[in-house]
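Researcher: Next entry in the queue.
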Amino acid sequence: MSTRKGPLRLVTVNTTPERAKRLIGRLITKLQDDYEIIHVDNCSSMDEVVPKVTEHKPNFSASMWSAEEVEQIHSLARSIVPDIKLHAIPTGLQVETGPDAIIEHLVEKVPPLLDSYISQDRKFRQISSNILDTR
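Model: Structure for this entry, 135 residues:
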């Protein structure tokens, strides 16, 4: 049996916080055997991205906006947490196929994103440890 990875902090960016909470709750349930994901907050507008990312320092974020808005959200988040992992749910997926399709999409896309963060974090910790050991 493998060890759960995490905890990993998630901030969503969604104008409907309750919908974000429900969808992420389903994602967390689907991935709970492999990952400990904590949904720490939701940004209801782009104006909330900088303060909430600054406050929570999440490992990753998911959002459902237009391509231009996603670019702006990602830029804002990376200005605070440069190594944050970000995922944009394709525009229109919710309307075209419903929430089940979003969950399927996230279950497929989020684990590689989380694993890349965990791998990057382990490498950083190993390098830091090696630097400290040589002092």
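Model: The longest strand covers residues 5-13.
Researcher: Noted, moving on.
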